[in-house]
Amino acid sequence: MAITCARIADEKKAQDVIVLDISKLTFIAEYFVICTGINERQLHTIADEIEVKLRKLSKGRIGIEGYNEAKWILMDYGDVIVHLFGKEMRSFYDLELLWGDAPKISW
Length: 107
Prior knowledge:
The protein is an alpha+beta fold and 107 residues long. It has a single domain (2-98), classed as Beta Polymerase, domain 2 (2-Layer Sandwich). It has 4 helices and 5 strands, in the order αββαβββαα. The protein has a 5-stranded mixed sheet with strand order 1-2-5-4-3. A hairpin with a 6-residue loop joins strand 3 (63-65) and strand 4 (72-76). The longest helix is centred in the middle third of the chain and has 17 residues, at 40-56. It is globular.
């Protein structure tokens, strides 16, 4: 499912899409999908498309945060957490550094 989310983000022209395997570092999820959008509209489009495609695969979302503000949209699917960032927020929070021990997954 993480790869599916990464591909959807890539199809919607997200920048710097990565998948981190966090399964050996925490119990909160198996994977993080992280990407950057260029504006609020693109972030909404990516989030909406992920929601639609995963619903078709019978993958229900547990929660979502930040959708209205669209600076950092967090979508929780249980074993996959999707982080959709605006450029400034991604740089500020730098999850890649914070979770630097997590291997990147090729997709």
